[in-house]
Fold each of these.
Amino acid sequence: MRSSERAQDLGEVFTPHSVVSSMLDMIPNAVANSAFKVLEPACGDGNFLVEILGRRLEEIDANFMSESQFGLSVIKCVSGLYGVDIDETNVSDCRERLQDCLSNFLATKTHPQSEALLQSAQAIIRTNVVVGDTINSPTEIVLIEYTPGEDGFFTRTHFFLEEPERDLFFVELPTLEPMHFLRVE
């Protein structure tokens, strides 16, 4: 339970599950389609992101696919979700809830690479659910876009929530190596 002081200090308002569900029901195609990227700029403990991940995983479950397609689809579901929150505890809780959602889903499957999928997803969640201030410091928030390529590899590209001024003091972010969906660092 969050204190009222904390809620007032941080401006926290946690959206109830019933409201989250109703809102997402209004845009079912965008929510279920992992090709759509979702940014929750004040993600709290992840109510929206967890529900979207759950719906995307249900979509995978409803469509028969090969083992490799299954694994790629799971990673695509996770890699298109982005969350930012000003509070470190909220970010930690959101990451944990997303990981639990995926872990519970994979526990119902007999996929031989479930553990590797979970580890890859955890690495992606760490890069895409971050602490930051989307109102006052969007140029300081760096996320990673994961773009599917060939043979199960994803290209990874840094991007800023808001592009910073590229002045004399701007330092380019390092180029990231492609990663295989079962071997994320």
Amino acid sequence: MKDKEKPEPPKVGPADLSIRREADGGLALLPPGGGEPLAGVRVARCFPWTRPDSYISVRDEAGREISLVPDLGELTPDTRREIEAELVAQEFIPRIVAVHDVEDRFDVMIWNVETDRGPVELQVKNAEDVHQLDDGRVVVRDHAGGTFVATPSELDPRSRRILDERCG
């Protein structure tokens, strides 16, 4: 079945949210009232990043939101533990060390950057996915949900100029 044909995932409130770790290491939602677990569940912190235990989005494998958790303290201890472990595993945030170029293609910006882990091509859908934090760092979120951070003062002049144009 194609993603477009899949039914919407169930909407689940934080009090009814039950998540377990599957044998393959992924997360699965246990539907309230029983039924087949929904595999491929992903979690992500929403802003503000200064409140790491608040506003956690739980999504299906197609990226559709199942639940928004205002506070991890509202969850059962087992579900909270699984979500916290997943978030810790995601905390790897590559640093952008150079911006080679940004090309606008249709409705997507293609960023060719160098990270501390090597070269990467980022596909960024919205201008809002590139923004400057209060401390001056620039956060770039790609279409797949990956987060990359650049510190302008550590970049070469050309990279800083490109960031300035995109964060304008």
Amino acid sequence: MTTQPATTTQPVAKGAVQAPELELLAALTALVANWGSVATQEEIALRAGVAVEPGDVQPLYALGRTGPQRSSTLADTLRLSRPTMSKQLRRLAAAGLIDRSADAADGRASIVSLSTAGAEAYRRLVREGVVMVRGALSEWDAAGADAFARNLSRFVAALTAGETSASLSKTRAGESTAQKEER
């Protein structure tokens, strides 16, 4: 009988050395939980002077970053259901932050884009996000911050492309990679 190594579900003693993958997983979990939280999104919007529901910050930001698109594409990008996306876009339209126009390729669909006020709100959100990031990097030297930005961008690209996307699809279908490896 062989002994199995400790699984990642067991608590790790504070200060214990972890594999880089476990450290990254823990850091990413904390980052996503913090940055994506209603409280953080609300704080960013308040600091930026943008009067939107905290949950509407992400679609506003995504439209500013990626430009005009169908609401279904935006929902897919943000991994939201179509009804949730529709509610968010209705609120943003009521606030005067987005415009809708007919999709030339499909008359049944519409394209959403930032209005002039929405583009200004996006700029203020980005400016406030940059302030937060600069604060977190304030004790880093420039070379370390540059390397971190490049490596994090590479890491995110690897997570969101190719095999990882296929793995996510299989996981959503009910079978995780870990379950396959157990077979």
